[in-house]
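Appendix B, example 12.
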Amino acid sequence: MLLRTVLVGVLCVCVGVSTKDRSCYWRAECQETLFATRTPYDAVRGDIRDWPLLAGCEAISMWALVRHGNRNPGDKETINMRELQARIKDEIIEHFDYEMGSSQLCAQDIENFRKWKWNATMETSQKYLTGIGYEEIYQLGSRILQKYPQLLDFPNFSQFDVYVRPTYKQRTVTSAMAFLQAFNEGKELNLTADVPREQDDVLRPYDNCPQYKDEVKNGQLLSDQLEAFFKTTEYLQVQKSVTERLALSQTLSVEEIFTLYELCRFYRTWSPDLKSPWCAAFSSSDLLVLEYRDDVRHYYKNAYGFPINAKLGYPVLKNLYESLELAKRGEGKSIVAYFAHDTLLGMVYSALGLYKDGETITAQHRNPYRTWRTSHLAPFSANIMAYLNRCNDGSYKVQIFNNEKPTILCPLEGCTWDQFASIFQAFTDANLDFCKLKELGIPNVPGSAAEFTSLTGLLFLTLSIIILRI
């Protein structure tokens, strides 16, 4: 019940205002806000400040895994976007007839295209955190501090009571800086992040796993699924309708349609009103189809498409358990936060058996009611946060939030320590030895990760029956 509420939220049906059959994006009653892994965090997040504190308990330690904030596109994306907009922008404007309307846009859409300019700074800062991304992470830190000021306000507090580590990428390093600024502001704490590790088996385990690269990242199944998506009837219909809507003389290729989608979703996140003229190319139903491409990609690249993905999520969950266990013994830190990427988040969801649909996600069939939806699970600044609470009776309770919303793992009423340990202690033997088995010519044990995921799923189901009051 709670899980479905968290994922689905409120659906907004965007209905444009039509003038002579022209679909006016700029006057739509509401704008589509879900853009898969490019979704702005504010479009789907909860608010940690809104949830009631545990009666008779106080949070003494927080552990967090956070995706970096909003970023620029990568080099290939940037080149494709620059070339496509340069080729079709003027044609879109020229083919619009103010008298008859040869395209399906309206006058203000065309005016917005006239005003729009290419952001050349992207060409020198690919995948860098944007100012909006910095603000996303800063505000997340601010909300945590407002809710749990005691994490930084207890006798003998020192900078060593906070541990923050990013991966080596600029976007995660700068995100960590934004997070710490929220805690440093107005105080003389001098909190700093740990130096990123060149090889980080906790935050980027997939970098050091030849088996993952062979089977998943460079494997045929992922490639086949993406190719199959671009051949689906739904996607081909998007290709046709977008070309007609813009009144282009030549049909856009399937790759160009996705590049146009990238133009739409990246630029809208940087606009104060969350709009982009490039989004006028798509209907709401078009955007739902395009969103699914990322769901398919991440399902196979990061999550349930391959058993090895779950195993790569174990090390960071081992860190979660050990961090809270140390805090329970009075030897841990008040805040532990790691800044990583959507790849690791998908692996963690898979390791925990979260957001798994009853049927396999495939390119050929888009279930509109699926649980696996990256817009909700891996937006910019997505996070998993666990709080250890010490209660007046001497007991301990754990709460776990996903994107600042309660989860079934350890909900608002909290897990007891034994309930928490029954789930997470299983990860304490995690390592990456399995990654080298193929290199050494030793066959891996088939199904081991899937079996473990099924076991943890059963544990969660049993736990949810005990602790959830539906």
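The chain has a mean pLDDT of 88. DSSP finds 16 helices and nine strands in the chain.
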